[in-house]
Design brief:
heterodimer; A: 516 residues; Beta-Lactamase; four-stranded antiparallel beta sheet; 59% helix; disordered N terminus; B: 233 residues; Rossmann fold; Arc Repressor Mutant, subunit A; 2 domains; five-stranded parallel beta sheet; 8 helices; globular
Amino acid sequence: MVHDDLALRGMRPLELRRLDLLRPAVPILQALALAGIITICLAGITSLTQLSHVSTAYLVAVLIAATRWGAVPAVAAALGGMVASAFFFYPPLYDLRVSDPQHLMDLALFVSVAMVTGHLADSARAHMRAAQRREEEVRSLYAFSRRLAVASTVEEILASARDHLSAVLGHPVLLLQARSADGGPSAGAVDTLPHAVRASIARIEAGVLQERAFCVDDATRSTWLVGPVSLPNPGLGIVAVNLGPFLGDDLRRLRPKLDAALADAGATLERLDVARALGEARARSIRETFREALIGSVSHELRTPLAAILGAASVLARAPAVAEDDRLAQLAEIVRGEADRLDSDIQKLLDASRISSDGLRPQSVWTDPADLVDAALEPRGRRPEDRRIEVNLPEELPLVYVDPMLVTQALRQIVDNAAKYSPAGSTIRIGAREAGEHVVVDVRDEGMGVTDEEKERLFERFYRSPRHSAAQPGSGLGLWIAQAFVRAIGGQLTIDSGGRDRGTTVTVRLPAPRLG
Amino acid sequence: MSRKALLALVVDDEPQIRRFLRAGFELEEMGVVEAATGAEAIRIATLKPVDLVIVDLGLPDMDGAEIVERLRSWSSVPIIVLSVRSGETEKVRLLELGADDYVVKPFGMAELLARARAALRRQLGAVAGEPVIRVGPLTIDLARRAVTRHGLELQLTVKEFKLLQVLARHAGNVVTHEHLLREVWGPSHAHDSHYLRILVRKIRKKIEEDPAAPRLLRTELGVGYRLLGEQAS
């Protein structure tokens, strides 16, 4: 049936109209032809033997016509059989009149039996056709779901949905605008569509039209049904069904069938969307669990030996035998210093991994910015490389609403950088000021500075400019981490410099919302 | 410190950590008894007269909170927990359950000893009753309700004194924000940390050499405040 319909695509309207009239006539003629064949057979038989009740033979024609072509041809076969019997076989021969009342009864019986069996056969046929159609739909749905199961992109999903809908509706279908992975429109051949259809689509997108409607394209004389795939969920996509040259009543009969099929498809797509979202969420939570477990175990595995190293070194440093011997005391100090460095590197890696996988969960509290600067400069005994640090904070800085751990870590990183890239004996100046609903902290050094090209790339993960790499070892993670932390609490980190070797100022803007 | 040799119970599942802790305490002429699990620790604590408990939080058989809770149910022995860097909420919880202080791994022995001594002093002071506490240049006289700095008496408001009093009673050990708020403002204000920060700022202006870089009244970010211990530098 589907193929017949699609084949009709190529015909011109006038021819189609004639066909429409001729179409039902064909089976009737076929039924009558059957009756004719039986007549000939009967004629042959009666020439050899005597037959009294020939009309029963025509039941064959009636049944065949009923099961193959339906009620009307069956009636035609019955009437044909009746006429043929009366004319050819019941005396007077070659005359429609029937003299013998027995033969009249026979004909009447024949017609009634023919009607009943014809009707029964016709409904059996209808059931069979319905069952066949359902089987076809189920097969198509099965194929559709099989394709969906292996579909990995939105495009594949759309293609299989489109094929399925075409099969179910018996008309070519175009699916458009279903949400693609990034939310943008998916590939739809909008340009090849007729103007009227495009206009309807535009109205649906604009939200003006919210249900499915027919529209007629005069150029190709075709009717289209355009509308959202799923009425309760219009964002899922727009469907345009090319119904061909059907008109008027046919359309009205077709509409419920189309709506039902589209409702099914819409529900399936919706389930898909939900399924996809669920799948993504599940994958994300699995990743998250793994990440937490990995970080937990890495953290413990690396930190425990470090704790033992640092602890033992600190005890050694206190033992009189070591404390009183300068060289030994220095060695103990080296062990302690290097263990510290290791600890801070491990912390950086863990921070970096938390940032990469969106694992930052800032817990903001009201904090005194002076405390943050103070904590960043801790521990006092361990200021590296003898840089002078001047802290100049105004008396009454407002409290800031931040996660103290994250900000302290970020500031510590900034100060470490300042110390790393500035010469011995230079000064690092830390200041702060209130600026609207923010507190701005700046760290100024007198060191290597940052050129404009370097500034553009400085916040990239793992980036180290050649100039800086040559000067000091490092991972390139520090600024990236600092910026991620500051951003996570709603702040901003910026860098300014006079240029090469002209010092650097790193500015951190922290939120200090006014209390209502 | 007391003449009688003190006994420290060291609880950690890592033998290397127990080893350096033992060495560190023995250098201070303290006795040490070790436990590798929470169950063992509680058993030892019930059998022996331990004066100090150092307990790691990552024990295999018991949650740190559970050990602190169980010990506190029948003993006021000073408890110092060994924790990891993050997890401020866990530290606060343990302090609220009755732990006296914490150190963050990796740590140095000196830091642990300072906090342990502060807790021990408080324990002994609670028995003997200590009206006067000296912290750096400050002298806090709890009986007369007066605070002097370098001999000069400071003008403090009622709340400022109350805060210093609570911190001084725990001198050398951390006190959580919630505890301070309850003591100074009352139980219904346990979450108004804004008030606390402002009050601390005011006090620092009065007692600190450089209020922006406090040496006496230190902040433990995310947890609370710590007044410098007695006799400490």
